[in-house]
Amino acid sequence: MPDHKLSSIQANIDNFEGLYSTTSILLEGHLHTHTIQTRLTPRLASLVPVTQIVLDRAFANELPAKKDSYIDIPAFHLVLRLVSAISARHFVGHPMCEDEEWLSTALKYTENAFRTIIFLRIFPDWAKPVVSLFIPYSWKVSSALRKAQRLIVPIIIQRRKEAATFLLTKDSSYRKPDDFLQWMMDEANERDGLPHKLAHRLLILTLASVHTTSMAATQTLFDLCAKPEYIAPLREEITKAVQKDDGFTKQTLTHLRKLDSFMRESQRLNPPSLLGFKRCVREPLTLSDGTFLPKNTHLMMPVYPIVTDAANVPNPMRFDGFRHYNNRLQPGESNRHQFATTSDQNLHFGHGKFSCPGRFFAANTIKMVISNLLLRYDFHLEGSATGSVERPENVRLHEYVFPNPETKVSFRLRQV
Ligand code: HEM
Predict the structure, then answer these.
(1) Alpha-carbon gap, residue 296 to 227, rounded angstroms
(2) Which residue has the CA at smallest separation from atom 29 of ligand 1?
(3) Are the C-beta atoms of 279 and 298 separated by less than 8 Å?
(4) Whose CA is nearest to atom 17 of ligand 1?
(5) Whose CA is nearest to atom 14 of ligand 1?
(6) pTM of the predicted model as reported, rounded to 2 decimal places
(7) Which of 12, 118, 288, 392 has an alpha carbon 20 to 30 Å from 189's alpha carbon atom?
(8) For the CA atoms of 32, 38, 44, 46, what is the dihedral angle to 10 degrees?
(9) Which phi and psi (to 5°) does residue 277 adopt?
C-alpha cells in the first residue's frame, strides 16, 4: 500500500518517540533512503578494499591479542568500535572518521535515544512533554545532536566553498570527497541541504546503522563460540575466497555463501526485535476480510514467531548454520535465502517497498568483521576454553532483543 495510506516511516518514528529522540526530521523527506539506494548500495563492492584498510588499523588498535595467551574483551563493545570505524569511514570520510569526538558523539546519541524511547514509552502521550524535561537521557540526546552539528556543519560549509572555488579556477588538485555525507549534499534539495539538517540526518543514519549491524555481528560471533564446529568450514570458505581474489576485493564477499547462511540463521533466532513490519494507518482502511482499521491505528507483525513456526521452517528451534546455504543449492533457489533477502516469512529487515535500504551494506560489514575475526584469531567465550557451550542469554527490553553487552570473548592470534 502507498505511504499516504499505510506508512512505515511514520510508524517507526512514532515507535522511536520521534520528537524526543529527534528522529522526526526523517518525516520531512526521503533523502537518506534515496541516497542509500542510489549512491551507497551501487558502490558496495568498491567499498570492500577500503573497509579492509579500515579494519587492519582498527584491529591493531582495538584487539591487541598475542599468540601465546588469550585476552578477554567485552564482545559487543569490540564489535561496536569496529563497525563504528567502518561506518564513519564511508559516512563522513577523512579526517572526521578518525575523530574520537565524532565517534563518541554518535554512540552517545544512539544509546541515549534508545534509553529515552524505552523510558518514555510507558507514559501516555499527554505526559511525555513534561516527563522528557526530567529525564537526563533526553537532555543527552539534544546535547549529542548539537555537538554533531558543531562538528559536521563546518565540514559541509568548507566542502561547498572548495567546490565553488573549483568551478571558478578549475584547480586540478581538487578532489571531490566520495562519502555518504557528500552524496547526500549532492542529492539534497534546498531545504534538506541546509547544513544543520544534513548533519542531523547523518547522525540518525549512524543510529539506524551502527547499533543494528553491531548487534547482528555480535550475535553471529556468539553463535560461532557456541557452535565451534562451524569455525573450520567457514575459515576454509573465507581462505579460499581471499586466496582466489588475492585479498578482499569487490567480488570476494559474494563467494561467502556459508557465512551468509550462518549470519541469517543467527539473525533468525536472535533478531533485534520480536515484532516488526511496523505500520501506521494514515487513511481509514478496510481489509479484504472486512477488518476495519481507523486512521492512526498502529500495527506490526510477530516476526520472531513467524520464523520459528514449523509451518515455515522445518525443525525451527534447531540452530542449523548451513540451513540457508543448503536451501540455495536447490534448483532455482540460488538467489533466495540470503542474509539480506526479505520475504513474507522473513521480516527482520521488513519487506517490500519500505524494507530496510541499508541491509546490503550491513551484510557486507558483518561479513568483513566476522571474516577478519576468523582469519586472524582463535576465540571462545570467556571461561570456556574447550568444547561447545551455551550461547549467552540475550537481554530483552519490550520487544527489543540485545546481545548481552557484558559477555566477554577470549581472543588469541592464530598460529598460522
Ligand atoms: C543488521 C542490521 C540492520 C537491521 C536488522 C535493520 C533493520 C531495519 C528494519 C526492521 C527497518 C524497518 C523496515 C520496515 O519498516 O518494514 C529498517 C529501516 C531502515 N534502515 Fe535498517 N537495519 C539494519 C541496518 C541498516 C543500515 C546499515 C542502514 C544504513 C546504511 C540502515 C538504514 C535504515 C533506514 C534509513 C531505514 C528507514 C527507511 C525508511 O525511511 O523507510 N539500516 N531497518
Answers:
(1) 45
(2) 358
(3) yes
(4) 356
(5) 350
(6) 0.96
(7) 12
(8) -120
(9) 50, 55
User: Which phi and psi angles does 293 have, rounded to 5°?
Assistant: -115, 110
208 lines ligand 1 (CB under 6 A): yes
- Residue 277 Cβ inside 6 Å of ligand 1? The answer reads yes
C-alpha cell at 131: 516527563
Ligand 1 pocket, residue 276 CB under 6 Å = yes
Residue nearest to atom 6 of ligand 1 (CA): 349
Q: Which domains does the chain have, with CATH numbers?
A: 6-286+293-409 (1.10.630.10)
Instruction: Determine the atom of ligand 1 nearest the C-alpha atom of 354.
Output: 41
Cβ–ligand 1 distance for 266 under 6 Å, the answer: no
Euclidean distance between CA atoms 258 and 399, whole angstroms: 29
Nearest protein CA to atom 11 of ligand 1, as residue: 356
Which mutation among 220, 304, 356 tests ligand 1's pocket best, with the greatest number of atoms within 8 A of CB?
356
Closest CA to 82 of 321, 411, 356, 325: 411
Q: Is the CB of 271 under 6 A from ligand 1?
A: no
Q: Is 8 in the pocket of ligand 1 (CB under 6 A)?
A: yes
339 within ligand 1 shell (Cβ under 6 A): no
The complex scores an ipTM of 0.98
Ligand 1 within 6 A of CB of 32: yes
Q: How far apart are CA 409 and CA 391, in angstroms?
A: 11
Please tell me the residue having the least CA distance from ligand 1 atom 30: 358
The three grid cell numbers given for residue 349, joined into one nine-digit string: 529487515
Nearest alpha-carbon partner for 260 in 103, 131, 367, 385: 367
Q: What is the pLDDT along the chain (416 residues), one digit of tens a residue?
A: 888 999 999 999 999 999 999 999 999 999 999 999 999 999 999 999 999 999 999 999 999 889 999 999 999 999 999 999 999 999 999 999 999 999 999 999 999 999 999 999 999 999 999 999 999 999 999 999 999 999 999 999 999 999 999 999 988 899 999 999 999 999 999 999 999 999 999 999 999 999 999 999 999 999 999 999 999 999 999 999 999 999 999 899 999 999 999 999 999 999 999 999 999 999 999 999 999 999 999 999 999 999 999 999 999 999 999 999 999 999 999 889 999 999 999 999 999 999 999 999 999 999 999 999 999 999 999 987 765 588 999 999 999 999 999 999 999 999 87
